[in-house]
Amino acid sequence: MRLLFASLVIIMLASPVVGHELSVYTVIVNNDGAHPANIPNGSLKEGDSAWFWMKDSTDNATLIVEIERDGATMRSPTLQFECELDENGTLVDDECKNRYDHVFNQHNSAGLWNLTFLKFVNGELNQTYNGSVYIEEDLHDSQEEEPEIIDSKEEIELFSKQNIAAIIAVISLVSIALILTSMGDDSTITKNRLISDSEEE
Fold it and tell me: How far apart are CA 171 and CA 11, in angstroms?
């Protein structure tokens, strides 16, 4: 069983990794404005998310977040500071939101996005905060599309690494097959011994 587990771990380690680990950046909007209004460069790539939390406790205040690039605008629902919950912790009003999650498209969202935070009090626009975020291109996708120029030494090293990974995977699969067949043989031998012991008695 240990050998089986070790083989599976080796196979998983030999598998190539594609893309980047998706991340989330949080922006808090409170009585003083958005923090940060300008998300630092290098924080987000294509496919990542930004979460906008409404934490402004001003009486009867609501928030709308607008995200715009090249004339296309996305708008959040109206965000509240608090959403009422019943005794079970369930939202009383399913439409009530205090966070807006925006996922930047994984294939065509690279570039500068403008952020606008619209604060309303008693339904009337009270304050506007502006900011921005620069979404970086996910370079893993573009590297697959563009041919790379590799010198012969690099090509040999790459070929060697791929061969090693393939050999490890094959050895692991053969080991698994041997373990499974030996487990079957052991149970057959045990059954035969039991039968011969009972016949001798």
Answer: 10
